Amino acid sequence: MTISGENVTVGHIKTSNVNASFNTDGGAVTLNATGTNTGSGVLTVNSIDSQGVTVLNGNGNLGGDVVLNGNTISVGLINSGGASAIGNNRSGGAAGDITVTALTDMNILPGNVSANEGDGPAGTDLRGNGGDGGDIRLNAGGDLTVNAALSANGGSALSTGNPADGGGGQAGTIDVNAVNLTVNAPISANGGDAIGNNTGGNFIADGGNAGSVTLNITNSLTLAGNVSATGGVAGRNNNNNPGVNAAIIINGSNGVNQFDINNAVLLTGASATDRKSVV
């Protein structure tokens, strides 16, 4: 689905059929506010759901990509997640990517911007992997305020029994670029876990790797939400490996940067054990 216009206002968009009895991926969504005059190029979105559909005895279907472009952008909930799997030897669907680009200011309203993957099958002796998370890219040429949780997590393998093979999905990456950035909600790019609910199971699977989180700031950053990029938990077999943590990177570009990171904020990732390593 593609919608373009000088100014674009959208209520709710859903591109997948929740009543489908056949394989169906979430459809891609592209919205362009193309106006170039003063006061135009405004894109306002309430919610977009391009999540894949879960089908009985099938892999989780893929989430659709979401691309938003405009001069100024205000957006609420976005869900491009992959669907969970149902059935033996099935895997969760990979999430679609989310890319939002504003030439000037962007406001992410309270809610969720999620490119999470689907989980593997939940049940006894069901083999299946968690799906991979999608990438999230937010680009603002001016101020960017994030009041929604940003998540690009990998899916978990949930089957139980012996054997119950299935690895955690890989997380996507999160890349945020702005002149002035305010984040009032958590950010996560965590790998999926490779565990089920039965401690006696012979799980043969690794945890999913985390994805990197990068915040590129020209002028100032106010960070009041936790940021995590941790690998998933390994299966209970001794030969399994946990997922690898990824970097949390905060960059400033002009030498007059101001970083205000709330003392209660937790930065959990490969290079975030010391706050000074990322500021």
Give me the strand/helix succession.
EEEEEEEEEEEEEEEEE
Which structural class should the secondary elements be placed in?
Answer: mainly beta
Spans of at least 5 consecutive residues whose pLDDT stays below 50 are 119-128, 197-202, 272-279
Count of β-strands: 17
Mean model confidence by pLDDT: 77
| Share in helix | under 10%
Q: Mind describing the biggest β-sheet?
A: 17 strands, parallel
What is the percentage of strand-forming residues? 35-45%
Rounded to the nearest angstrom, the distance between the terminal CA atoms is: 40 Å
Radius of gyration: 19 Å
Number of helices: 0
Structure description:
- With about 280 residues, the chain is mostly beta strands.
- About 0% of the residues lie in helices and about 35% in strands.
- The chain contains no helices and 17 strands.
- It has a 17-stranded parallel sheet that branches.
- It is flat, with a radius of gyration of 19 Å.
- Mean pLDDT is about 75; it is low at about 120-130, about 195-200 and about 270-279.
Structure keywords:
single chain, 279 residues, mainly beta, 17-stranded parallel beta sheet, 17 strands, flat, disordered C terminus
Layout of helices and strands, plus pairs?
Layout: E1 2-5, E2 8-14, E3 29-33, E4 42-49, E5 66-70, E6 72-79, E7 98-102, E8 106-114, E9 136-140, E10 143-151, E11 174-183, E12 187-188, E13 213-223, E14 227-228, E15 248-252, E16 258-261, E17 267-268
Parallel strand pairs: 1-3, 2-4, 3-5, 4-6, 5-7, 6-8, 7-9, 8-10, 9-11, 10-11, 10-12, 11-13, 12-14, 13-15, 13-16, 14-17
